[in-house]
Design goal:
CATH architecture of the largest domain: 3-Layer(aba) Sandwich
Number of helices: 16
Strand order of the largest sheet: 2-1-3-4
Bound molecules: 1,3-dihydroxyacetonephosphate, iron/sulfur cluster
Radius of gyration: 20 Å
Oligomer: single chain
Shape: globular
Largest sheet: 4 strands, parallel
Number of domains: 3
Amino acid sequence: MQDVLTRTAPLYDRVSRVIPPAEWTLFEEDIEAILELKRERNAVILAHNYQTPEIFHCVADIVGDSLALAREAQTVRADTIVMAGVHFMAETAKLLNPAKRVLMPDMRAGCSLAESITPADVRLLRSRYPGVPVVTYVNTSAAVKAESDVCCTSGNARRIVEGLGTESVIMIPDEYLAQNIANETGIRIITWAGHCEVHERFTPEEIRRLRAENPGIVVLAHPECPPEVVAEADFSGSTAHMSEFVASGRSSRVLLITECSMSDNLAVLHPDIEFVRPCNLCPHMKRITLPAIRNCLETMTTEVEIELHLAVRARAAVERMLAL
Ligand code: 13P
Ligand code: SF4
């Protein structure tokens, strides 16, 4: 019988550019166990672009940005979905698949944006701006989505806001995403002071310094960054749009102004491209580890539940987004 190192060698070949051999020895047993548990439990793993390469490239079945994960969640045939991402992503998967079991490997994996706003805040905004539609970023709780007219992600925010055809829009809770969309569209946007704790830390000075140190780099920034940071970039888009840009081969040296693991995951797919890495980690995404996923599949916990009266209204806001 082959030893575990030999059995996992084909998987290691995939990620050997970004995972040193010594680190791999810590992963291989969990990876083997997870692949077996997925079969036994009839489960699939959905992983966001910010998950580490041993999860993203070695155990995930479906990977992508928030929009892709929401869409793909609807096509899952397995009984159980494990969300290798943060809590709001698991809730979105549950909203779209109420009959399936959706599991979170670590319930503490939250999001600074989701925590910045409550349903009462949304009701207050509505009472202040009667008749103005409420567009809610998916990075929110189901209870906040339930108070909204339509959801958006960074991948479709512009389309959703423009599609409403109104002069003003309430767009919550990400102040910077809202300002970036207002700059792109000229639509008056009323927003909220929520920020992503990963993207708010990038500064224009940092980008200018990295450009000076790395001549010829192309800078891609996530729209959760402050507008003055986006203004320094050559391109701004969701994690999926950034991946597409990199895959297009338009540049051989790129700087991704977003969460660290994204560069590692793309480096696996594009060995000819050099990634310059200023590193900002999302502490919530990083709570999801191989041992946490293994434990989740072994114990079939922790299941994400959404109260029915909230789920009906929150699902309508997500489905409106997907229909647009
Ligand atoms: P996207 O993957 O939709 O671009 O979102 C980034 C993000 O911060 C998710 O938490
Ligand atoms: Fe939330 Fe930012 Fe982490 Fe995404 S990267 S989960 S927006 S804190």
